[in-house]
Design goal:
Length: about 70
């Protein structure tokens, strides 16, 4: 199960070094990758919102729409 999850998260085959890990270690790695991606997405969203402070208020809605925020 963890190997399928890792394959999906990595977007391809699992490297040989990871295949050598025990199942619980693969699950820990999968959980760590998922958590890191969530933190990254949150940080990017916050940075996008912070960057909008430099856009004039009248244009923020349009810029959000174009940028996808």
């Amino acid at each position: 199960m963890a190997e399928r999850t890792l394959t999906g998260q990595l977007g391809g085959p699992v490297p040989a070094g990871i295949e050598a890990l025990a199942d619980h270690e693969k699950q820990d790695l999968s959980d760590a990758l998922r958590d890191a991606r969530h933190r990254q997405a949150k940080a990017l969203a916050e940075a996008g919102e912070e960057g909008l402070k430099y856009v004039p208020a009248l244009l923020r809605g349009a810029v959000r729409k174009v940028v996808g925020l």
